[in-house]
Amino acid sequence: MESFSEDFQTQLRNLMAWRRDVRRFRTDPVDEAVLMRCLDAFRLAPSVGLSEPWRVIRVSSDAARSAALENYRTANAAALAGYSGAQAEKYSQLKLSGMVEAPEHIAVFCDDSTAQGHGLGAGTMPEMRRYSVVGAINLMWLTARAQGLGVGWVSILDPAQLTRDLDVPEGWRLVAYLCVGWPEAYSETPELEMKGWDQRRPDLIVERR
Fold first, then answer.
1. How far is residue 71's CA from residue 161's CA, in Å, rounded to a whole number?
2. Burial grade of 177 (CB within 10 A; 0-12, 13-18, 19 or more)
């Protein structure tokens, strides 16, 4: 396999640096062909045992989106109650979801019951199926960013309730609820860092054993 040019490697580094967890979206619709190019990244993703366990749902009905939003609001209120003092005040000022504005909602599940792949690699580490889904999501996220789209991963949710609301098959487990759309603005710095919630580590720590 040939190596890529230095220019390509630089652009890839820039793409990773400018990939952000977006929570502030414009309401402009996303062209269907553009969204499909993003979702096509799942086809290119590696998976344990070639199991391809990801199951992707576009959450588009008013009822489903309203249920997901109410789920988030309930979980967010509970999360706020877990903080106190200055940390609670800071948490209350964070925008942690773009669910109201984002034109596209994507729920990504892992099918833990899939027969594809014949269990290869998942016997000793069954969680590898879910890790495979996360890896596929990352490829989709980079693809979206390359086209100017933003993606926001909403993790403040009750996954069991969302699974019931979307009426998915038994054996599917929620991995990600993603908001997709055009960002209000672009930044290389994570919003949580800009808001003073925490700071990124300055250096990568690699240990030897």
1. 7
2. buried
The pair of structure tokens assigned to 34 is: 């553009």
- Going across the sheet that includes 150-154, the strands are 54-58, 104-111, 172-181, 150-154
**Domain 21-194 grouped into CATH 3.40.109.10:** yes
User: Is the C-alpha dihedral spanning 25, 31, 32, 38 positive or negative?
Assistant: negative
> Whole-angstrom Cα distance, residue 31 to residue 111?
28
Q: What angle do CA 182, 97, 68 make, to 5 degrees?
A: 105
Phi-psi region of 68 (alpha: psi -120 to 50; beta: other; left: phi over 0): alpha
Q: What is the pLDDT of residues 57-91, one digit of tens each?
A: 999 999 999 999 999 999 999 999 999 999 999 99
The model's pTM: 0.95
